[in-house]
Amino acid sequence: MMESMEIDREKAPSTGEEKKETKPIVVVLVGLPGSGKSTFCDEVMRISSRPWARVCQDTINNGKSGTKIQCLSVAATALKDGKSVFIDRCNIDREQRADFLKLGGQQTEKHAVVLDHPAKLCISRSVKRTGHEGNLQGGKAAAVVNQMVPKKELPKLSEGFDRITFCHDERDVKEAVNVYGSLSPLDSLQSGCFGQKKSDAKIQLGIMKFLKKVDPSGKAGSEPTVCQKSIPNELSVGEILSCREPKWILELLSIPTLAFPSISTADFQFNLEKASDIIVEKVEEFISRIGKARLVLVDLSQGSKILSLVKTKAAHKNIDSNKFFTFVGDITRLHSQRGLHCNVIANAANWRGGVNAAIFKAAGSALEIATKEKAVSLSPGKSVIVPLSSSSPLFAREGVTHVIHVLGPNMNPMRPDCLKDDYVQGCKILREAYSSLFEGFVSIVRSHGLASMHNSGRPLESGGFQEVIPTNDDQKAKREADYESEKNKKYKGLRRDLKSCASNSMDEEKIQDKSVNMTKSWASWAQALHDVAMHPNKHKSVVLEISDDVLVMNDAYPKAQRHLLVLARVDGLDSIADIRREHIPLLKTMHAVGLKWAVKFLNENKSLSFRLGYHSVPSMRQLHLHVISQDFDSNHLKNKKHWNSFTTPFFLDSVDLIKELEDVGRVTLKDDKCLAMELRCHRCRSAHPNIPRLKAHISSCQATFSADLLQNGRLVSSPGVKDVLAWVYVGTIQNVDNALPYHNLSSYLLIFLMPIAIVA
Description:
Elements: E1 25-30, H1 37-47, E2 52-56, H2 68-80, E3 84-88, H3 94-98, E4 109-115, H4 119-128, H5 138-148, E5 163-167, H6 170-181, E6 192-194, H7 205-210, H8 237-242, H9 246-253, E7 257-260, H10 272-286, E8 294-299, H11 305-316, E9 324-328, H12 334-338, E10 344-348, H13 354-363, H14 365-374, E11 377-378, E12 383-387, H15 393-398, E13 402-406, H16 423-453, H17 472-490, E14 496-497, H18 498-512, H19 528-534, E15 543-547, E16 550-554, E17 563-568, H20 584-604, E18 609-615, E19 624-629, H21 640-647, E20 651-653, H22 654-664, E21 679-680, E22 687-688, H23 691-698, E23 715-717, E24 723-725, E25 729-730, E26 733-734, E27 749-750, E28 755-758
Parallel strand pairs: 1-3, 1-4, 2-3, 4-5, 5-6, 7-8, 7-10, 8-9, 10-13
Antiparallel strand pairs: 11-14, 12-13, 15-16, 15-26, 16-17, 17-19, 18-19, 18-20, 18-23, 21-22, 23-28, 24-28, 25-27
Helix pairs in contact: 1-6, 4-5, 10-11, 10-16, 13-18, 14-18, 20-22
């Protein structure tokens, strides 16, 4: 199935032509019972930043089955509130769909998502399911599906739909979920019919628009006016054969393409304005030398400022948007997730985390081995080309044949060889880095072109490009490379050890397994906790308790009535990504101190409950344990990220983390996708559209906590669930300004011996 999207996520600086919020969408789901309509809605709403409302006839009447009229009324209200709407009904014929196509008039887009699974599969699912919202399960469900099958009428654009997506299997469904789940309030999708299996189906407007043959109005297409060009996610064999120029499309997908991140602007903290000027300058210089090849600047963030700056400046320079554009996505999954085929990707080899770690992890050991064979070290401003073997997962899954390691200048005082804001030298090095990167890509493009015309019969290298007779430029580049290699042997200054770079990344993969490498740079504002932990005498006013190992302070922006931080006083432990088995005693001490304070607060207010845990990806440097009451009554709790950072798997309970370290010697981290999940009450799990409504609900919710929290000491509360004795042992504690009445205690002292409910 092919999903061709026109999604413009980049918000450029104000030019008087800023994009207005797009129309709400009414998505009419079409499918038999058991086809997965409700699951589709839930999956999209779980990952989407766009406000959605699900209108389900099975639950429309206060949790019970209702009428079509009720569905229309609720949908109309949701649209007025600025939400897009899923119509979760079977909608199997034209008549059932007609009224929903009138919702919102011309101010809404009308889409259909057809879950066109075999009746046999739908029956099997319906019969097996339990607890269905509409109680349609067992033998009754099988009978209903059989009755509906003859009546099923697939939707057509002529009914009034702007877009129809057909899903024939789970892969199609997953792609459709990703398409709708990635829509922000400012995004839109192309019109047309997508994924229809019929051989005589009309050519999809999305494909034709991509081919610049027609637009939805039937007029000749035009060149895109922005740097980010719409790329089809994937073309099925049937869709390629149904196009008038399948060869043209195949050639397009095989165009040599370099995907590269912005060098030095993330971990090395290079000025974005200066960096964007240099990127556009170097792209403009090299664009005429790459033939039909393409350069793509990639960033993972939808709100990336560097992409926005580069896009605007490239447009002002009238750089050909077919040859250079910006793109939002994971550089290691551009083809599989976003449909952009890039045979060469650049690795900003600046540190063991970030893009560098992601590329080494995605490429597997093949890249590590090849990198060690090609180079030992790399000087700032230089690059090295490493061909990938076909055994690499990055080659097999994404079609990446080469990785170009490139090193830029460092402006981050927390990283080696900082230039200390010397932007004269920094800009010189960054220009050299992009020149070296693009020269490397030019050599690959040349090799690819000559290999196809002058095949001498020699076996191709693992990367798929045959070595060819060098031109004068190639010989010059080789001489420069040889000189650089000799210079590296003697070079004592700025240099990145690629062997270490690869090994560190692979070690991180082995240590964290399924987790994402969380090593990151820390902005100046994020250094505050580290400064307090390392220099407590400068911050006596905020320190509540201190020992040789830990320090206790209030969170500066508490997200609940009681919110403490227990900091580790060990330099080099920035977050839980850095902890190993040998840190278990320290973690137990931190937990014991945090538990002691929870008990103290419970003595003052028995209505509170507490959790002790860590953020998978903390925003502040220095390992710290959160001790937070579960009322979440705070003016500082303002957005979805705040809420989900404490109520989703992103928050790792201290007791679980310690046990996992004891059992397997490592911690499995959660990435920050959890922060985008929908807002749900942490007690009853009910969903809420925004923070004010969620706060209003949790202030009165009396539901018991989830079963998993009521186990293994994850939840700490006053007596009433299970009275146990909390034996809390900590090391010698030194008080700061007599904040606590515990002075010069013996090495291990029983601080508390009192009834407290630690739910087990």
